[in-house]
Hints:
This protein is an alpha+beta fold. The chain has a domain at about 60-170: Ribosomal Protein S8, Chain: A, domain 1. Helix content is about 35%, strand content about 15%. It has five helices and five strands; from the N terminus they run H-H-E-H-E-H-E-H-E-E. The protein has helices spanning about 5-15, 40-55, 75-80, 100-115, 135-145; strands at about 65-70, 90, 120-125, 150-155, 165-170. Helix 4 (about 100-115) links the parallel strand 2 and strand 3 (about 120-125). It is elongated, with a radius of gyration of 25 Å. The protein starts with a helix and ends with a strand.
Amino acid sequence: MIDEEDRRAFAAATHGVRPVKPSDRVAVKSPRRAARATISRADEAETLRESLDGPWPDLAAGDDFAFRQPGVPETVLRRLRRGRYSIEDECDLHGLTRAEAQAVLRDFIVECSELGLGCVRIIHGKGTRSGPAGPVLKHLVYRCLSRWDEVLAFAAAQLKHGGSGAVYVLLRRR
């Protein structure tokens, strides 16, 4: 409940104030969210077929890997491998299923790209407990990152940042 002293203080503070005419008001538009494409069943089937027959490198648990899009200089990849770019964010995929990891990875890369981040780290683990089929998430990360336009290059991280269980990702700036 408002007491009389507060009413007088409010009246004194607003003395001489006039309401804004409706024609003087500006309509504020809320920012539109970025559109996200949905995957059709045909696209999903094509992606599944491509992922199964590949040509993907045979990655063992301790192997390092690297990739760069056409047009990205070798010097950029070399600097990335050496950890010369500052890591602006990271994503840890440990303990996720293949489907969960792919969704989390995609959302992370899109968000970081929209924020204009340059270099991020993804921790996928070394896959030492994946069994005879080899590391699951490591293969998934390689396949996904090498397909997405937001990704310019990626390389296995330095030992201090996770070694063959993590990857540096250089993103296209928007």
